[in-house]
Amino acid sequence: MTNSTRLIPIVKVPDPILRKVAEPVTEITDGIRQILDEMAATMYDAPGIGLAGPQVKVSKRLVVIDCSKDETHDLYKMINPKIIRSSNKRSVLEEGCLSIPDHTAEVERPAEVEIQYLDETGCSKKILADGLFAACVQHEIDHLNGILFIDHISRLKKDMIMRKMIKNYRQAEKQG
Ligand code: NI
């Protein structure tokens, strides 16, 4: 990744692209690798720990994740990721989303998941995720299926967040 890597605007709720099921990537081209680099740069700039294609108006099954807590980067670029196994054990973590800024909520999900994906060279990878990484990867794969973290919380809290987001969206539209 170079310093000249382009940053992409992140779309926010209620943009309808966030509710579309993203298309699988059928060929890993330089264009796909470039989008992944731009997504990573955009995620670090935000800053965030994960970003999915639909959040940058790319309705393809692409995800970038870096849950490392210190200065060392631990970047995953995932193409067509899927969960192949989920633990019965569940855990609750506070989640936020770059497409729903200024709102967080506790979300319950399987505590451990096994994921399969293609890396940017087309190699099939399988990894076991737990803790924050497990929550993050499930959150990002949800994005590929048009699902947001607010779909996992109480109706009351979801409606409250949606009302505020729609109000902000209308104000931004008015301001052009
Ligand atoms: Ni998100």
Describe this structure in words.
The protein contains three helices and seven strands; from the N terminus they run H-E-E-E-E-E-E-E-H-H. It has helices spanning 30-45, 131-144, 155-174, and strands at 50-52, 62-65, 76-86, 90-95, 105-110, 112-118, 124-130. By secondary structure, the protein is an alpha+beta fold. Helix content is 28%, strand content 25%. It has a five-stranded antiparallel beta sheet with strand order 1-2-3-6-7. It has a two-stranded antiparallel sheet with strand order 4-5. It binds nickel (II) ion.
List keywords for this structure.
3 helices, five-stranded antiparallel beta sheet, two-stranded antiparallel ribbon, alpha+beta, binds nickel (II) ion
Q: Which SSEs are present, and which pair or pack?
A:
Layout: H1 30-45, E1 50-52, E2 62-65, E3 76-86, E4 90-95, E5 105-110, E6 112-118, E7 124-130, H2 131-144, H3 155-174
Antiparallel strand pairs: 1-2, 2-3, 3-6, 4-5, 6-7
Bound molecules: nickel (II) ion.
Nickel (II) ion binds next to helix 2.
Q: List how many beta strands DSSP finds.
A: 7
Mean of residue pLDDT?
Answer: 95
Structural class: alpha+beta
User: What summary fits the major beta sheet?
Assistant: 5 strands, antiparallel
Q: What ligands are attached or bound here?
A: nickel (II) ion
**Cα Rg:** 16 Å
N-to-C CA distance? 33 Å
Helix-strand pattern: HEEEEEEEHH
- How much helix is in the residues? 25-40%
**Shape, principal axes of CA atoms:** globular
For the largest sheet, list the strands in their spatial order.
Answer: 1-2-3-6-7
The proportion of strand residues reads 25-35%
Count of alpha and pi helical runs: 3
> Which consecutive residue ranges, at least 5 long each, have pLDDT under 50?
none
